[in-house]
Specification:
By secondary structure, the protein is mostly helical. The protein is 64% helix and 0% strand. The chain contains 20 helices and no strands. The longest helix has 31 residues. The relative contact order is 0.04.
Length: 425
């Protein structure tokens, strides 16, 4: 009997079965160590939260960390079942999905290598970071604040450490790291008590990037200046402005950020994006001190968005309404702009009249005189003072005796196959 030297090949279904068994083993080890005793009369009571009197703690923190009566009794608030029972009711696939999440894998890995949550270590690192920050040793403060935030997550100490970490990056002139840390902090702590300070810093970074980004091409990488991002400095500035408005829409700098984003788009020739920002500023911040700029610059962007009589009329119509609104609200405050706005109004009406005349000419050239006269008549009524209205009057006089519809050169086909009668609803 000859022995084969080829490796043993297992069928695919056996590999799948082995993988499922391994996943089940990992899930059982992950979710609980010991199995719950089904004959236990009551779950074990959790330990009471320790009261810590140290820097980074406040009345709000103590109230936030105070366990609820249901938690003290080991019961869930909604179902009245024990916490252990509620956890056991979750399916295997739900537990396996939670175990496969990136943040849970990272937590298990940190705990395995001895870097799990430790409040004592975190507070000592925070104290060392405070000392380094006061000594203006910002590089050392960055390291210590990062340790403090990492070793005691989901606490007010972490929020304090993340804010001070961003401050340390700011004084190190590493503005990209500062902005990223602010974003990460506000994502986890949406109503942070540092919101006002974060907005001030973010606005300063955005204005700096917007000004510096005009001198650099967005596609050219930055390897020398640590104050700028790797690519597209001006684009990052706009992202900072938009992030400010999303994170703090009712804050004191929300309208300033909206205007700054619109002006940046306007200077770059991104007319549609600029128009969106100015529209947002006019509608969502009616009491803003930047309403005049939003109206005047918004009018310019709408005229820039209009591409001609062969394209969409909406930018031209919106510009016409915006001129009326600007004259109504700010004519007394801007007497020097009144004449220019009126000239813009006449120009807009001339262009709208031209569109109507072009539509009439289309049907005139096809000898559909009834349709052509409809557009000419509408033009004369809506825009009587425009040059196109005089041309329309000449066409109306010319076509008054013309047949309304062009001759039917294919009538003989109707006699052969039968003519279908038109029905009107």
């Amino acid at each position: 009997m000859r022995c084969s030297s080829k490796p043993l090949r297992l069928p695919a279904w056996l590999w799948v079965l082995m993988a499922c068994a391994l996943a089940a083993n990992v899930g059982c080890k992950t979710f609980g160590g010991k199995l719950r005793n089904p004959f236990a009369k009551k779950p074990t009571e959790p330990q009471a939260a320790q009261q810590i009197d140290a820097p980074g703690e406040s009345i709000q923190q103590a109230a936030f960390e105070q366990p609820s009566p249901e938690a003290k009794a080991g019961m869930t608030k909604d179902t009245g079942k024990s916490i252990a029972e509620a956890a056991d009711e979750r399916s295997f696939w739900q537990k396996a999905g939670d175990a496969a999440k990136t943040e849970n894998i990272a937590k298990r890995w940190k705990k395995m290598i001895g870097r799990g949550p430790n409040e004592a270590v975190a507070r000592q690192a925070y104290a060392d970071a405070e000392a380094a920050f006061r000594a203006k040793n910002y590089e050392e403060a960055v390291k210590k604040y990062a340790i403090a935030a990492d070793r005691w997550p989901d606490s007010m100490l972490e929020e304090d450490a993340m804010f001070m970490l961003a401050e340390s990056y700011f004084f190190c002139d590493r503005y990209s790291k500062t902005s990223d840390t602010y974003t990460k902090m506000l994502k986890k702590y949406e109503n942070s008590r540092y919101m006002d300070k974060v907005m001030v810093r973010s606005f300063a970074i955005g204005k700096y990037w917007d000004e510096v980004g005009k001198k650099h091409k967005w596609l050219v990488p930055n390897f020398s200046d640590k104050t700028r991002p790797l690519f597209d400095t001006q684009g990052h500035a706009i992202a900072v402005f938009e992030g400010m408005r999303m994170n703090d829409p009712t804050g004191p700098l929300a309208d300033d950020a909206c205007l700054a984003a619109g002006v940046s788009h306007f200077m770059s020739g991104h007319w549609e994006d600029a128009d969106h920002q100015f529209d947002t500023l006019r509608k969502e911040y009616p009491r803003s001190e930047h309403q005049v700029e939003a109206h005047l610059l918004g009018l310019k962007t709408k005229l820039k968005n209009y591409q001609g009589s062969q394209y969409d009329e909406r930018p031209l119509t919106e510009a016409d309404k915006l001129v009326d609104s600007t004259l109504l609200q700010f004519s007394r405050d801007l007497p020097e702009e009144r004449e220019r706005l009126q000239a813009t109004k006449r120009s807009i009406r001339d262009q709208r009249a031209e569109r109507e005349y072009i539509n009439g000419e289309y049907y005139y050239n096809r000898k559909c005189y009834r349709a052509a006269r409809y557009y000419y008549e509408h033009l004369i009524k809506q825009f009587p003072e425009t040059p196109s209205a005089k041309l329309a009057e000449a066409r109306m006089e010319e076509t008054k005796n013309y047949p309304p519809d062009p001759p039917n050169y294919w009538g003989w086909l109707g006699k052969i196959f039968g003519e279908r009668k038109r029905t009107y609803n």
